[in-house]
Amino acid sequence: MNSYRPVLYVLLAVILFFLWTDWQRWQVPAAPQAPANALPTMPGQAVPQAVPVPAPTPPRAARPRTPMIPQAATVVVKTRLLTATLDTRGADISHLVLHGYFASSSHGKRPYALLTPAAPTPFLNENGLLGTVPLPNHTSLYATRHSNSRLVADTRPVHIRFHWQEGAARVVKTYTFAPSSYVVPVRYAVSNTGKTPLTVYLYNQFVHGPAPASHFLHSAPIYIGAAYYSPARKYHKLPFARMAKHPLTLAATGGWVAVSQHYFLGAAIPPATQPTIFYSSVFAGPRYAIGYKTAQPLTIAPGATATLATRLFLGPKKPAILSQVAPGLDLTVDYGWLTVLAQPLYWVLAHIERVVGNWGLSIILLTVLIKVIFFPLSAASFKSMAKMRRLQPRMAALKERHGSDKTALQQAMMELYKTEKMNPLGGCLPMIVQIPVFIALYWVLLDSVALRDAPFVLWIHNLAAPDPYFVLPILMGLSMLVQQMINPAMMDPTQRKIMMLMPVIFTAFFLFFPAGLVLYWVTNNVLSILQQQWVMRRMDKA
Protein backbone atom coordinates (compact mmCIF):
# COMPACT_ATOMS: atom_id res chain seq x y z
CA MET A 1 0.00 0.00 0.00
CA ASN A 2 1.46 3.38 -0.99
CA SER A 3 0.99 5.90 1.82
CA TYR A 4 1.41 8.90 -0.49
CA ARG A 5 -1.50 8.20 -2.74
CA PRO A 6 -3.94 10.13 -0.49
CA VAL A 7 -1.74 13.23 -0.89
CA LEU A 8 -2.31 13.05 -4.63
CA TYR A 9 -6.03 12.64 -4.06
CA VAL A 10 -6.11 15.77 -1.90
CA LEU A 11 -4.23 17.89 -4.43
CA LEU A 12 -6.31 16.57 -7.31
CA ALA A 13 -9.48 17.33 -5.33
CA VAL A 14 -8.43 20.96 -5.01
CA ILE A 15 -7.74 21.19 -8.75
CA LEU A 16 -11.07 19.53 -9.57
CA PHE A 17 -12.80 22.07 -7.29
CA PHE A 18 -11.48 24.94 -9.42
CA LEU A 19 -12.24 23.12 -12.68
CA TRP A 20 -15.79 22.28 -11.58
CA THR A 21 -16.62 25.84 -10.54
CA ASP A 22 -15.20 27.14 -13.83
CA TRP A 23 -17.12 24.57 -15.88
CA GLN A 24 -20.37 25.79 -14.33
CA ARG A 25 -19.75 29.24 -15.76
CA TRP A 26 -19.71 27.82 -19.31
CA GLN A 27 -22.99 25.91 -19.00
CA VAL A 28 -25.31 28.81 -19.91
CA PRO A 29 -27.98 27.87 -22.47
CA ALA A 30 -29.29 30.44 -24.90
CA ALA A 31 -32.38 32.27 -23.74
CA PRO A 32 -35.53 32.54 -25.90
CA GLN A 33 -36.37 35.89 -27.41
CA ALA A 34 -39.25 37.89 -25.99
CA PRO A 35 -40.49 41.42 -26.57
CA ALA A 36 -38.33 44.12 -25.09
CA ASN A 37 -39.76 46.70 -22.69
CA ALA A 38 -42.33 44.22 -21.46
CA LEU A 39 -44.46 45.26 -18.53
CA PRO A 40 -45.51 42.98 -15.67
CA THR A 41 -49.13 41.90 -15.87
CA MET A 42 -51.55 42.83 -13.12
CA PRO A 43 -52.62 40.07 -10.76
CA GLY A 44 -55.96 38.68 -11.83
CA GLN A 45 -57.97 39.07 -8.66
CA ALA A 46 -60.89 41.07 -7.39
CA VAL A 47 -60.25 44.67 -6.47
CA PRO A 48 -60.92 45.24 -2.77
CA GLN A 49 -62.15 48.63 -1.68
CA ALA A 50 -59.37 50.53 0.11
CA VAL A 51 -59.88 53.28 2.63
CA PRO A 52 -59.65 56.54 0.68
CA VAL A 53 -57.13 59.12 1.74
CA PRO A 54 -58.65 62.62 2.01
CA ALA A 55 -57.47 65.14 -0.50
CA PRO A 56 -54.99 67.66 0.86
CA THR A 57 -56.39 70.99 1.99
CA PRO A 58 -55.94 73.59 -0.77
CA PRO A 59 -53.69 76.54 0.01
CA ARG A 60 -55.29 79.65 1.41
CA ALA A 61 -54.46 81.74 -1.61
CA ALA A 62 -54.21 79.69 -4.76
CA ARG A 63 -51.70 81.19 -7.12
CA PRO A 64 -51.54 80.29 -10.77
CA ARG A 65 -48.50 78.14 -11.50
CA THR A 66 -46.83 77.64 -14.81
CA PRO A 67 -47.77 74.18 -16.03
CA MET A 68 -44.84 71.81 -16.48
CA ILE A 69 -44.53 70.25 -19.90
CA PRO A 70 -43.07 66.73 -20.14
CA GLN A 71 -39.83 66.79 -22.08
CA ALA A 72 -36.65 64.81 -22.45
CA ALA A 73 -34.24 65.92 -19.73
CA THR A 74 -31.94 64.59 -17.04
CA VAL A 75 -31.24 65.41 -13.41
CA VAL A 76 -27.88 64.61 -11.80
CA VAL A 77 -27.68 64.06 -8.03
CA LYS A 78 -24.36 63.69 -6.22
CA THR A 79 -24.03 62.36 -2.67
CA ARG A 80 -20.96 61.37 -0.67
CA LEU A 81 -21.33 57.76 -1.87
CA LEU A 82 -22.75 57.91 -5.40
CA THR A 83 -23.74 60.01 -8.38
CA ALA A 84 -27.07 59.23 -10.03
CA THR A 85 -28.49 60.44 -13.32
CA LEU A 86 -32.29 60.43 -13.52
CA ASP A 87 -34.12 60.61 -16.84
CA THR A 88 -37.56 62.10 -17.34
CA ARG A 89 -38.27 59.12 -19.61
CA GLY A 90 -39.72 56.80 -17.01
CA ALA A 91 -38.40 58.98 -14.16
CA ASP A 92 -35.88 56.21 -13.50
CA ILE A 93 -32.19 56.20 -12.60
CA SER A 94 -30.57 55.71 -15.98
CA HIS A 95 -26.96 55.83 -14.77
CA LEU A 96 -25.36 55.43 -11.33
CA VAL A 97 -21.69 55.38 -10.36
CA LEU A 98 -20.23 54.55 -6.96
CA HIS A 99 -17.58 56.76 -5.40
CA GLY A 100 -14.47 55.02 -4.13
CA TYR A 101 -14.82 52.07 -6.52
CA PHE A 102 -13.24 52.00 -9.95
CA ALA A 103 -13.87 50.06 -13.12
CA SER A 104 -11.64 46.99 -13.15
CA SER A 105 -10.54 47.61 -16.75
CA SER A 106 -9.88 51.32 -16.20
CA HIS A 107 -6.35 52.69 -16.00
CA GLY A 108 -7.57 56.21 -15.33
CA LYS A 109 -9.49 55.46 -12.14
CA ARG A 110 -12.89 55.73 -13.85
CA PRO A 111 -15.68 55.32 -11.24
CA TYR A 112 -17.51 52.01 -11.27
CA ALA A 113 -20.89 52.23 -13.01
CA LEU A 114 -23.43 50.02 -11.26
CA LEU A 115 -26.47 51.07 -13.31
CA THR A 116 -25.85 51.69 -16.99
CA PRO A 117 -27.76 51.15 -20.26
CA ALA A 118 -24.50 50.62 -22.14
CA ALA A 119 -23.52 47.34 -23.76
CA PRO A 120 -22.23 44.70 -23.37
CA THR A 121 -23.81 44.27 -19.94
CA PRO A 122 -26.63 46.77 -19.36
CA PHE A 123 -28.08 47.00 -15.88
CA LEU A 124 -31.24 49.04 -15.30
CA ASN A 125 -33.87 49.70 -12.69
CA GLU A 126 -37.43 50.24 -13.91
CA ASN A 127 -40.41 51.02 -11.74
CA GLY A 128 -43.86 52.41 -12.37
CA LEU A 129 -47.60 52.04 -11.94
CA LEU A 130 -50.25 49.84 -13.53
CA GLY A 131 -54.04 50.04 -13.39
CA THR A 132 -57.35 49.96 -15.24
CA VAL A 133 -56.70 53.48 -16.58
CA PRO A 134 -53.52 54.92 -18.15
CA LEU A 135 -50.83 55.32 -15.48
CA PRO A 136 -47.10 56.13 -15.84
CA ASN A 137 -44.70 53.23 -16.31
CA HIS A 138 -40.97 53.13 -17.04
CA THR A 139 -41.53 54.30 -20.62
CA SER A 140 -43.71 57.32 -19.81
CA LEU A 141 -42.43 60.87 -20.14
CA TYR A 142 -42.51 62.93 -16.96
CA ALA A 143 -42.02 66.61 -16.24
CA THR A 144 -39.82 68.11 -13.53
CA ARG A 145 -38.75 71.51 -12.26
CA HIS A 146 -35.17 70.21 -12.02
CA SER A 147 -34.65 69.69 -15.77
CA ASN A 148 -30.96 69.46 -16.67
CA SER A 149 -29.97 70.39 -13.12
CA ARG A 150 -27.12 69.16 -10.95
CA LEU A 151 -27.94 68.79 -7.27
CA VAL A 152 -25.70 67.91 -4.33
CA ALA A 153 -26.79 66.01 -1.21
CA ASP A 154 -23.85 66.71 1.05
CA THR A 155 -25.34 67.74 4.38
CA ARG A 156 -29.05 66.98 4.03
CA PRO A 157 -31.29 64.78 1.83
CA VAL A 158 -32.31 65.93 -1.64
CA HIS A 159 -35.80 65.23 -2.99
CA ILE A 160 -36.30 64.99 -6.76
CA ARG A 161 -39.93 65.21 -7.90
CA PHE A 162 -41.33 64.15 -11.26
CA HIS A 163 -44.86 64.99 -12.39
CA TRP A 164 -47.22 63.14 -14.72
CA GLN A 165 -50.89 63.68 -15.51
CA GLU A 166 -53.33 62.09 -17.92
CA GLY A 167 -57.08 61.95 -17.63
CA ALA A 168 -58.17 61.71 -14.02
CA ALA A 169 -54.79 60.49 -12.69
CA ARG A 170 -52.18 62.90 -11.39
CA VAL A 171 -48.89 61.36 -10.18
CA VAL A 172 -45.93 62.85 -8.32
CA LYS A 173 -42.95 60.51 -8.17
CA THR A 174 -40.29 61.45 -5.61
CA TYR A 175 -36.74 60.14 -5.17
CA THR A 176 -34.90 60.86 -1.92
CA PHE A 177 -31.09 60.80 -1.82
CA ALA A 178 -29.42 60.89 1.60
CA PRO A 179 -25.81 62.12 1.91
CA SER A 180 -24.38 58.85 3.28
CA SER A 181 -26.72 56.05 2.23
CA TYR A 182 -26.94 53.55 -0.60
CA VAL A 183 -30.70 53.25 -0.02
CA VAL A 184 -32.92 55.36 -2.29
CA PRO A 185 -36.62 55.58 -1.28
CA VAL A 186 -39.11 56.07 -4.11
CA ARG A 187 -42.59 57.43 -3.37
CA TYR A 188 -45.62 57.73 -5.64
CA ALA A 189 -48.38 60.17 -4.69
CA VAL A 190 -51.44 59.41 -6.86
CA SER A 191 -54.38 61.82 -6.95
CA ASN A 192 -57.77 60.99 -8.43
CA THR A 193 -59.28 64.10 -10.02
CA GLY A 194 -62.09 62.18 -11.71
CA LYS A 195 -65.49 60.94 -10.61
CA THR A 196 -64.82 57.20 -10.48
CA PRO A 197 -62.38 55.24 -8.28
CA LEU A 198 -58.86 54.47 -9.51
CA THR A 199 -57.12 51.12 -8.95
CA VAL A 200 -53.33 51.23 -8.86
CA TYR A 201 -50.56 48.64 -8.69
CA LEU A 202 -46.86 49.37 -8.23
CA TYR A 203 -44.03 47.37 -9.80
CA ASN A 204 -40.27 47.59 -9.37
CA GLN A 205 -37.84 45.53 -11.44
CA PHE A 206 -34.19 45.21 -12.43
CA VAL A 207 -33.13 44.35 -15.98
CA HIS A 208 -29.66 42.92 -16.58
CA GLY A 209 -27.82 41.77 -19.67
CA PRO A 210 -26.08 38.38 -19.94
CA ALA A 211 -23.31 37.73 -17.46
CA PRO A 212 -19.98 38.56 -19.14
CA ALA A 213 -18.15 35.57 -20.55
CA SER A 214 -14.81 34.92 -18.89
CA HIS A 215 -11.61 33.34 -20.11
CA PHE A 216 -10.75 29.95 -18.59
CA LEU A 217 -7.81 31.22 -16.55
CA HIS A 218 -9.50 34.51 -15.65
CA SER A 219 -12.79 33.03 -14.61
CA ALA A 220 -13.88 32.56 -11.03
CA PRO A 221 -16.91 30.87 -9.50
CA ILE A 222 -18.64 34.19 -8.83
CA TYR A 223 -22.42 34.31 -8.92
CA ILE A 224 -23.83 36.96 -11.25
CA GLY A 225 -27.59 36.61 -11.44
CA ALA A 226 -30.91 37.20 -9.76
CA ALA A 227 -31.83 36.47 -6.16
CA TYR A 228 -34.84 36.91 -3.92
CA TYR A 229 -35.80 36.59 -0.27
CA SER A 230 -39.13 36.16 1.45
CA PRO A 231 -39.74 35.60 5.17
CA ALA A 232 -41.42 32.27 4.36
CA ARG A 233 -39.07 30.92 1.66
CA LYS A 234 -35.85 32.61 2.82
CA TYR A 235 -32.97 33.21 0.40
CA HIS A 236 -32.85 31.76 -3.11
CA LYS A 237 -30.78 32.32 -6.22
CA LEU A 238 -32.32 32.44 -9.69
CA PRO A 239 -29.55 32.15 -12.31
CA PHE A 240 -30.23 33.90 -15.60
CA ALA A 241 -29.92 30.56 -17.41
CA ARG A 242 -32.88 29.16 -15.42
CA MET A 243 -35.26 32.06 -16.00
CA ALA A 244 -36.42 30.88 -19.39
CA LYS A 245 -37.46 27.38 -18.26
CA HIS A 246 -38.30 28.20 -14.64
CA PRO A 247 -39.79 31.71 -14.44
CA LEU A 248 -40.40 33.00 -10.96
CA THR A 249 -43.92 33.57 -9.64
CA LEU A 250 -44.08 33.77 -5.86
CA ALA A 251 -46.52 35.42 -3.48
CA ALA A 252 -44.72 37.03 -0.54
CA THR A 253 -45.15 39.62 2.16
CA GLY A 254 -42.07 41.75 2.55
CA GLY A 255 -38.70 40.42 1.45
CA TRP A 256 -36.87 41.71 -1.62
CA VAL A 257 -35.69 40.90 -5.14
CA ALA A 258 -32.24 41.70 -6.48
CA VAL A 259 -29.57 41.26 -9.10
CA SER A 260 -26.19 40.33 -7.66
CA GLN A 261 -22.90 41.17 -9.31
CA HIS A 262 -19.44 40.22 -8.13
CA TYR A 263 -19.01 42.92 -5.51
CA PHE A 264 -22.16 45.00 -5.97
CA LEU A 265 -25.91 44.67 -5.66
CA GLY A 266 -29.13 46.22 -6.90
CA ALA A 267 -32.17 45.34 -4.78
CA ALA A 268 -35.84 46.34 -4.89
CA ILE A 269 -37.36 46.31 -1.40
CA PRO A 270 -41.11 46.61 -0.77
CA PRO A 271 -42.54 47.66 2.62
CA ALA A 272 -42.23 44.86 5.18
CA THR A 273 -46.03 44.42 5.44
CA GLN A 274 -46.75 44.78 1.72
CA PRO A 275 -48.18 41.65 -0.01
CA THR A 276 -46.37 41.29 -3.32
CA ILE A 277 -45.78 38.90 -6.19
CA PHE A 278 -42.18 38.21 -7.19
CA TYR A 279 -41.69 37.52 -10.90
CA SER A 280 -39.00 37.09 -13.54
CA SER A 281 -38.96 37.54 -17.32
CA VAL A 282 -36.59 37.16 -20.25
CA PHE A 283 -36.63 39.92 -22.86
CA ALA A 284 -35.07 40.17 -26.30
CA GLY A 285 -31.34 40.69 -26.30
CA PRO A 286 -31.40 38.63 -24.15
CA ARG A 287 -32.13 40.69 -21.07
CA TYR A 288 -33.17 39.20 -17.77
CA ALA A 289 -35.63 40.87 -15.41
CA ILE A 290 -36.56 40.17 -11.82
CA GLY A 291 -39.00 42.30 -9.91
CA TYR A 292 -42.08 42.49 -7.78
CA LYS A 293 -45.55 43.98 -8.10
CA THR A 294 -48.08 44.69 -5.41
CA ALA A 295 -50.46 41.78 -5.03
CA GLN A 296 -53.43 43.91 -3.98
CA PRO A 297 -54.47 47.08 -5.77
CA LEU A 298 -54.82 50.40 -4.05
CA THR A 299 -58.22 51.92 -4.70
CA ILE A 300 -58.33 55.71 -4.69
CA ALA A 301 -61.69 57.41 -4.32
CA PRO A 302 -62.61 60.51 -6.38
CA GLY A 303 -60.94 63.59 -4.97
CA ALA A 304 -58.53 61.56 -2.80
CA THR A 305 -54.76 61.08 -2.84
CA ALA A 306 -52.89 57.93 -1.85
CA THR A 307 -49.22 56.95 -1.73
CA LEU A 308 -47.25 53.88 -2.75
CA ALA A 309 -43.65 53.38 -1.71
CA THR A 310 -40.65 51.23 -2.53
CA ARG A 311 -36.93 51.31 -1.81
CA LEU A 312 -33.80 50.67 -3.84
CA PHE A 313 -30.44 49.51 -2.57
CA LEU A 314 -27.66 50.37 -5.01
CA GLY A 315 -24.20 49.77 -3.63
CA PRO A 316 -21.43 47.41 -2.54
CA LYS A 317 -22.06 44.09 -0.85
CA LYS A 318 -20.76 44.92 2.61
CA PRO A 319 -22.36 42.58 5.17
CA ALA A 320 -22.50 45.24 7.91
CA ILE A 321 -24.46 47.59 5.63
CA LEU A 322 -26.71 44.99 4.02
CA SER A 323 -27.85 43.50 7.32
CA GLN A 324 -29.20 46.90 8.37
CA VAL A 325 -31.12 47.54 5.14
CA ALA A 326 -33.40 44.48 5.02
CA PRO A 327 -33.54 40.99 6.55
CA GLY A 328 -31.53 38.46 4.56
CA LEU A 329 -29.92 41.02 2.26
CA ASP A 330 -26.47 40.16 3.62
CA LEU A 331 -26.91 36.63 2.23
CA THR A 332 -26.13 38.04 -1.23
CA VAL A 333 -22.49 38.09 -0.14
CA ASP A 334 -21.91 34.68 -1.67
CA TYR A 335 -19.60 32.48 0.38
CA GLY A 336 -20.73 29.29 -1.32
CA TRP A 337 -21.69 26.11 0.47
CA LEU A 338 -19.31 26.76 3.37
CA THR A 339 -21.00 29.94 4.57
CA VAL A 340 -21.11 28.59 8.12
CA LEU A 341 -17.29 28.74 8.15
CA ALA A 342 -16.82 31.71 5.85
CA GLN A 343 -18.89 34.22 7.83
CA PRO A 344 -16.87 33.82 11.07
CA LEU A 345 -13.63 34.02 9.04
CA TYR A 346 -14.73 37.29 7.46
CA TRP A 347 -15.77 38.64 10.85
CA VAL A 348 -12.32 37.92 12.27
CA LEU A 349 -10.59 39.29 9.16
CA ALA A 350 -12.59 42.55 9.30
CA HIS A 351 -11.82 43.04 13.00
CA ILE A 352 -8.11 42.49 12.40
CA GLU A 353 -8.18 45.08 9.60
CA ARG A 354 -9.76 47.63 11.94
CA VAL A 355 -6.67 47.31 14.16
CA VAL A 356 -3.86 47.11 11.58
CA GLY A 357 -5.45 49.18 8.80
CA ASN A 358 -4.18 47.01 5.93
CA TRP A 359 -6.11 44.14 4.35
CA GLY A 360 -2.98 42.38 3.11
CA LEU A 361 -1.45 42.38 6.57
CA SER A 362 -4.83 41.25 7.94
CA ILE A 363 -4.78 38.23 5.62
CA ILE A 364 -1.30 37.32 6.86
CA LEU A 365 -2.32 37.64 10.51
CA LEU A 366 -5.51 35.62 9.94
CA THR A 367 -3.43 32.90 8.29
CA VAL A 368 -1.10 32.85 11.30
CA LEU A 369 -4.12 32.56 13.59
CA ILE A 370 -5.52 29.64 11.56
CA LYS A 371 -2.15 27.88 11.60
CA VAL A 372 -1.93 28.28 15.37
CA ILE A 373 -5.40 26.82 15.83
CA PHE A 374 -4.61 23.86 13.58
CA PHE A 375 -1.08 23.36 14.89
CA PRO A 376 -1.91 20.14 16.80
CA LEU A 377 -3.20 18.58 13.59
CA SER A 378 -0.26 19.89 11.58
CA ALA A 379 2.20 18.62 14.17
CA ALA A 380 0.67 15.15 13.96
CA SER A 381 0.98 15.27 10.20
CA PHE A 382 4.62 16.39 10.30
CA LYS A 383 5.50 13.72 12.86
CA SER A 384 3.98 11.11 10.57
CA MET A 385 6.04 12.46 7.67
CA ALA A 386 9.20 12.38 9.78
CA LYS A 387 8.58 8.74 10.69
CA MET A 388 7.98 8.00 7.04
CA ARG A 389 11.30 9.59 6.13
CA ARG A 390 13.15 7.41 8.64
CA LEU A 391 11.50 4.33 7.16
CA GLN A 392 12.52 5.19 3.59
CA PRO A 393 15.63 2.95 3.52
CA ARG A 394 13.70 -0.05 4.91
CA MET A 395 10.84 0.56 2.46
CA ALA A 396 13.32 0.73 -0.41
CA ALA A 397 14.82 -2.58 0.72
CA LEU A 398 11.35 -4.18 0.80
CA LYS A 399 10.65 -2.93 -2.69
CA GLU A 400 13.92 -4.33 -3.95
CA ARG A 401 13.17 -7.66 -2.29
CA HIS A 402 9.52 -7.97 -3.43
CA GLY A 403 9.54 -5.70 -6.48
CA SER A 404 7.98 -8.27 -8.80
CA ASP A 405 5.38 -9.47 -6.28
CA LYS A 406 3.06 -6.54 -5.50
CA THR A 407 0.94 -8.58 -3.12
CA ALA A 408 3.94 -9.60 -1.05
CA LEU A 409 5.24 -6.01 -1.12
CA GLN A 410 1.94 -4.67 0.20
CA GLN A 411 1.86 -7.27 2.99
CA ALA A 412 5.46 -6.54 3.96
CA MET A 413 4.82 -2.79 4.07
CA MET A 414 1.68 -3.23 6.16
CA GLU A 415 3.66 -5.40 8.57
CA LEU A 416 6.31 -2.67 8.75
CA TYR A 417 3.66 -0.03 9.55
CA LYS A 418 2.23 -2.29 12.25
CA THR A 419 5.62 -2.96 13.80
CA GLU A 420 6.53 0.74 13.87
CA LYS A 421 3.01 1.69 15.07
CA MET A 422 2.55 4.14 12.23
CA ASN A 423 -0.60 5.05 10.33
CA PRO A 424 0.19 5.53 6.62
CA LEU A 425 -2.67 8.05 6.41
CA GLY A 426 -1.47 9.99 9.45
CA GLY A 427 0.20 12.66 7.35
CA CYS A 428 -2.78 13.13 5.08
CA LEU A 429 -5.81 13.23 7.37
CA PRO A 430 -4.88 16.54 9.06
CA MET A 431 -4.54 18.07 5.61
CA ILE A 432 -8.02 16.84 4.64
CA VAL A 433 -9.52 18.36 7.79
CA GLN A 434 -8.08 21.78 6.90
CA ILE A 435 -9.36 21.79 3.31
CA PRO A 436 -12.88 23.11 4.20
CA VAL A 437 -11.27 26.02 6.04
CA PHE A 438 -9.13 26.82 3.00
CA ILE A 439 -12.14 26.70 0.67
CA ALA A 440 -14.19 28.90 3.04
CA LEU A 441 -11.40 31.47 3.20
CA TYR A 442 -11.10 31.20 -0.58
CA TRP A 443 -14.72 32.37 -0.88
CA VAL A 444 -14.20 35.12 1.68
CA LEU A 445 -11.25 36.56 -0.20
CA LEU A 446 -12.97 36.13 -3.55
CA ASP A 447 -16.26 37.87 -2.73
CA SER A 448 -15.25 40.53 -0.19
CA VAL A 449 -15.69 43.98 -1.72
CA ALA A 450 -13.41 45.39 0.99
CA LEU A 451 -10.45 43.84 -0.87
CA ARG A 452 -11.44 45.55 -4.13
CA ASP A 453 -8.93 48.33 -4.83
CA ALA A 454 -7.38 47.64 -1.40
CA PRO A 455 -3.59 48.11 -1.57
CA PHE A 456 -1.04 45.91 0.17
CA VAL A 457 2.58 46.95 -0.39
CA LEU A 458 4.76 48.17 -3.26
CA TRP A 459 3.33 47.03 -6.58
CA ILE A 460 0.16 45.39 -5.24
CA HIS A 461 -2.51 48.10 -5.36
CA ASN A 462 -5.57 45.85 -5.55
CA LEU A 463 -5.84 42.64 -3.53
CA ALA A 464 -8.91 41.60 -5.54
CA ALA A 465 -6.96 41.68 -8.82
CA PRO A 466 -4.14 39.40 -9.98
CA ASP A 467 -0.56 40.29 -9.11
CA PRO A 468 0.49 42.40 -12.14
CA TYR A 469 4.06 41.05 -12.07
CA PHE A 470 3.17 37.46 -10.99
CA VAL A 471 5.55 37.66 -8.04
CA LEU A 472 3.17 36.10 -5.52
CA PRO A 473 2.18 33.14 -7.79
CA ILE A 474 5.86 32.38 -8.43
CA LEU A 475 6.62 32.55 -4.71
CA MET A 476 3.69 30.23 -4.11
CA GLY A 477 5.09 27.72 -6.63
CA LEU A 478 8.54 27.91 -5.05
CA SER A 479 7.09 27.36 -1.58
CA MET A 480 5.28 24.24 -2.82
CA LEU A 481 8.54 23.01 -4.32
CA VAL A 482 10.36 23.51 -0.99
CA GLN A 483 7.60 21.59 0.79
CA GLN A 484 8.10 18.66 -1.55
CA MET A 485 11.86 18.71 -1.02
CA ILE A 486 11.54 18.43 2.77
CA ASN A 487 8.83 15.77 2.60
CA PRO A 488 9.69 12.10 2.17
CA ALA A 489 10.13 11.04 -1.45
CA MET A 490 7.58 8.77 -3.06
CA MET A 491 8.42 5.22 -3.94
CA ASP A 492 6.50 5.19 -7.21
CA PRO A 493 8.40 7.05 -10.01
CA THR A 494 5.15 8.02 -11.74
CA GLN A 495 3.78 9.57 -8.56
CA ARG A 496 7.07 11.38 -8.00
CA LYS A 497 6.80 12.97 -11.45
CA ILE A 498 3.18 14.00 -10.81
CA MET A 499 4.11 15.57 -7.50
CA MET A 500 6.94 17.49 -9.14
CA LEU A 501 4.47 18.88 -11.66
CA MET A 502 2.08 20.09 -8.94
CA PRO A 503 3.96 23.36 -8.23
CA VAL A 504 3.95 24.18 -11.94
CA ILE A 505 0.24 23.38 -12.31
CA PHE A 506 -0.74 25.39 -9.24
CA THR A 507 1.44 28.32 -10.30
CA ALA A 508 -0.32 28.40 -13.67
CA PHE A 509 -3.73 28.34 -11.93
CA PHE A 510 -2.81 31.11 -9.52
CA LEU A 511 -1.29 33.48 -12.07
CA PHE A 512 -4.70 35.09 -12.55
CA PHE A 513 -6.19 34.55 -9.12
CA PRO A 514 -6.78 37.53 -6.78
CA ALA A 515 -3.58 38.66 -5.10
CA GLY A 516 -5.22 38.41 -1.69
CA LEU A 517 -5.94 34.71 -2.18
CA VAL A 518 -2.41 33.99 -3.45
CA LEU A 519 -1.01 35.94 -0.48
CA TYR A 520 -2.92 33.64 1.85
CA TRP A 521 -1.59 30.54 0.10
CA VAL A 522 2.03 31.80 0.15
CA THR A 523 1.76 32.67 3.84
CA ASN A 524 0.18 29.31 4.61
CA ASN A 525 2.95 27.43 2.76
CA VAL A 526 5.75 29.38 4.45
CA LEU A 527 4.24 28.82 7.89
CA SER A 528 3.80 25.11 7.10
CA ILE A 529 7.49 24.85 6.15
CA LEU A 530 8.57 26.58 9.38
CA GLN A 531 6.27 24.42 11.48
CA GLN A 532 7.46 21.24 9.79
CA GLN A 533 11.12 22.14 10.28
CA TRP A 534 10.52 22.93 13.95
CA VAL A 535 8.65 19.65 14.57
CA MET A 536 11.26 17.56 12.75
CA ARG A 537 14.14 19.16 14.63
CA ARG A 538 12.45 18.43 17.95
CA MET A 539 11.91 14.83 16.88
CA ASP A 540 15.58 14.50 15.85
CA LYS A 541 16.67 15.83 19.23
CA ALA A 542 14.33 13.44 21.02
Strand order of the largest sheet: 7-8-9-19-15-14-11-12
Radius of gyration: 30 Å
What's the total number of strands? 19
Category from helices, strands and their pairing: alpha+beta
- What share of the residues does DSSP label as strand, in percent? 25-35%
The general outline is: elongated
Number of alpha- plus pi-helical segments? 12
First and last CA, distance: 29 Å
Helix content: 25-40%
- The CATH class assignment of the largest domain is Mainly Beta
User: How many structural domains are formed by the residues?
Assistant: 2
Largest sheet: 8 strands, antiparallel
**Low-pLDDT residue intervals, each spanning 5 or more residues:** 1-7, 22-36, 42-64, 215-219
> What is the CATH architecture descriptor of the largest domain?
Distorted Sandwich
Quickly describe the structure:
This protein is α+β, with helices and mostly antiparallel strands and 542 residues long. It contains twelve helices and 19 strands. It has two domains: 5-21 and 342-541, no CATH class; 72-334, Beta-galactosidase, Chain A, domain 5 (Distorted Sandwich), CATH 2.70.98.
